[in-house]
Amino acid sequence: MPPETAVSTSHSALDPKRWQALVFISLAQLMVVVDATIVNIALPSAQADLDISDGNRQWVITAYALAFGGLLLFGGRVADLWGRRRAFIIGLVGFALASAIGGAAQNEAMLYASRALQGVFGALLAPAALSLLTVLFTDVKERAKAFGIFGAIAGAGAAVGLLLGGSLTDYLDWRWTFFVNIPFAGIAALGAWLVIREPAESRNRSTLDIPGVVLGSLGLVALVYGFARAEHEDWTESITVLMFVAAAVLLTAFVIVEAKVKSPLLPLRVVTDRNRGGAYASLGLAMIGMFGLFLFLTYYLQIVRGYSPVKTGVAFLPMVAGMIIGSTMIGTRLVTRVPPRVLMVPGFLVAAVGMLMLTQLSLDTSYLGMIVPAQVLLGLGLGTAFMPGMSLATERVKPTDAGVASAMVNVSQQVGGAIGTALLNTIAASATTSYFNDHVAGSTNEQLLTFSAMVEGYTSAIWWAFFILLGAAAIAALLINSKGNQGPATSGEGAGDGQPVPVMVH
């Protein structure tokens, strides 16, 4: 590899195997995103097979969410300190082993343990994957293409999980929703071992911030658990309130510590940058909206319309197509020509229009006439917005902080998902109960009334998701003022303003 000069892109951008590396990084990302959805589809079968009570089944989801959400910052910093390629491979191998345990689970404790382990290794894997993209693709045009592909996978993976989960559950067995991760992880790990070469200058040589790890991890665990508990209990229930108070205290202490220690777990410059902060916030809000789409449209199609899990997965394919087109064809082609805000704000607004259409769901809404166009708009809008948002969230950060900056993207999405699930479920349940009680006296068909009440609950929650997407657009418009990497410097020559690595901090 030729030595760097001050006027060229970093040597990582010249790595002839960087596009091969993207294939394996994207495969790993697809596995992580698909896994988040696929287990939801398999849960009823697993619950019946392992005799899990209704009260305990939430732990199949919550065990993963707590470990993943709580350890993301730690995983991102470990990748910076010990090497992203190493963290990526260890995360893949560990995720595969945890998945094997889940697939072979003989009781509920074994299944919970496997999900927690998946969360632990996922928290190492996910930030490492995104940060590898950040340090490998430093040429602006190549970075746009790479993030376009990555963003499309991140957005569409949940819908792919519905299709894959439904197919495996219907035609094989719920255990295959775990076992399917093993070939994914094996291929990605082998490929990473053979082709990924992490730039040496991007390694962080500082020490690990132990107080930051403890405070940050416990604070995030308390926050995620608070929302998870609120989904099943009352928001004013004592333990729920205690979790939110603990999260506020721990995360406040975390910020104070990070401002004072020499080598912080999360350098505050990463999140206080106006553009990155705006990207994190808008992506987090968009995840709430996406959860509204997947959660309630899945319920609607399966419960009200009677779709099978496989048919439900197929029904989401228009959104997947829109997501891929928005990310790879629109976002990637325009991100080097216009400021990120010019893509993100219209993207979120187009997605909001799609969500607005879904507020009109009824018992007999036409799938082709309304649900498909709404999905296409949602996919196009979110795909167009996610691509520049994810790229901006890791732009102009020191290469030595790429892992923790990438972890913050995952944190915003994970917390957004937890908030979305708890908040929107609560809104839907309240509206459903209210509608049922108001109409039960004059009803002659209890099943019809039940379905009508469900649809009322779904549309009430989707209205909130619509306004949340408008909020994401507003935050992007108000906070993000970056002009992006466009203009003459986008060729890669001189893109770094005289620096060897063109993604340096201000």
TrEMBL record:
Subcellular location(s): the record lists: Cell membrane
Please give the Gene3D superfamilies that the UniProt record associates with this protein: MFS general substrate transporter like domains (1.20.1250.20), Multidrug resistance protein D (1.20.1720.10)
Q: Note whether Transport occurs among the keywords.
A: yes
Does the keyword section mention Transmembrane?
yes
What membrane topology is annotated for this entry? Multi-pass membrane protein
Per UniProt, residues of the Major facilitator superfamily (MFS) profile domain are 21-483
Under which name does UniProt file this protein? Answer: MFS transporter
Q: Which organism is it from?
A: Streptomyces litchfieldiae
